Amino acid sequence: MAVDADGSPILMPAKIFKQIAGESIEPEECRAVLGKQTFETVYGLYIEWHTVSSTDCPLWELCQTSHQYCCL
Predict the structure, then answer these.
(1) Who's near 37: CB < 8 A, 6+ residues apart?
(2) Domains: count for the chain
């Protein structure tokens, strides 16, 4: 995860990042690691406003949306 200039999360599974960039993300190179529960607490309203299904995994839905935009 990264954030854009507006503070909106840009999510991409590490596997897809590796396919696109050819590089692996090493946890020790990250500034911080947020667990799923912490992410959902911090970005709760963002998740509510930017996802359509309350039954699917909101992180997966956001990843698909972020991946869509980064590959246009």
Answers:
(1) none
(2) 1
Distance in angstroms (rounded) separating the CA atoms of residues 54 and 52: 7
Count CB atoms within 10 A of the CB of residue 37: 8
Taking the whole predicted model, whether its pTM rises above 0.70 is answered as no
Determine the Cα–Cα distance for residues 47 and 62; give it in Å rounded to an integer. Answer: 8
Range(s) of the domain holding residue 59: 2-70
What pLDDT does residue 69 have?
Answer: 47
pLDDT digits 0-9 by tens, 2-37: 777 887 777 777 787 888 889 998 888 888 888 888
Cα Rg, the chain, nearest whole Å? 13
